[in-house]
Design goal:
The chain is mostly helical. It contains seven helices and no strands. Helix 1 packs parallel to helix 3, helix 2 runs antiparallel to helix 3 and helix 6 packs antiparallel against helix 7 (140-151). The longest helix has 16 residues, at 35-50.
Length: 154
């Protein structure tokens, strides 16, 4: 299992076998959630993000959300890619959605705290860091300390 306190995008795991993208006619009918296909798109997005290719990574994450609109990996991946692009408000929205899908995710709350910090929404950053700390994140204390340094001790 991956420690969610670590950045899963940057962890070197066993190679993931990613099936080729689906081909064929696209239906206009809404389809049922397809989590396995979504997970494959997330894996592709993670590979692109690892290479620093933010645009292609985001495309894969969006395709994953088309297949499974509650894909935690896609939401967290989009949050990371938006954060890396400096689009902190968008990163916060995706991280918040990821935390909504997986409320006990240390990684989602930690990234939410970082994005809120960057948008100067200090109360929301404190809340997200505190939640991550309560979930057992070791890195959340760094965010809380940075917040205290920025605002002065409280």
């Amino acid at each position: 299992p991956v420690d969610e306190d670590e950045d899963p995008v940057l962890i070197e795991d066993d190679p993931v076998e990613v099936p080729p993208p689906a081909t064929g006619a696209v239906s206009d009918k809404p389809s049922a959630s397809q989590p396995k296909l979504a997970a494959a798109e997330v894996a592709r997005g993670d590979m692109e993000l690892k290479k620093g290719r933010l645009g292609p990574a985001a495309s894969h994450y969006h395709r994953a959300l088309e297949l499974d609109r509650r894909s935690y990996g896609a939401l967290l991946g989009l949050a990371r890619s938006k954060f890396e692009k400096g689009e902190y408000a968008k990163a916060a929205r995706y991280a918040e959605r990821a935390a909504g899908v997986r409320p006990r995710s240390k990684a989602a709350h930690l990234l939410l705290g970082d994005a809120q910090f960057k948008t100067l929404n200090y109360p929301a950053a404190r809340k997200a860091y505190q939640r991550a700390l309560n979930l057992g994140s070791k890195k959340a204390q760094v965010g809380l300390d940075r917040l205290s340094n920025r605002l002065g001790s409280q």
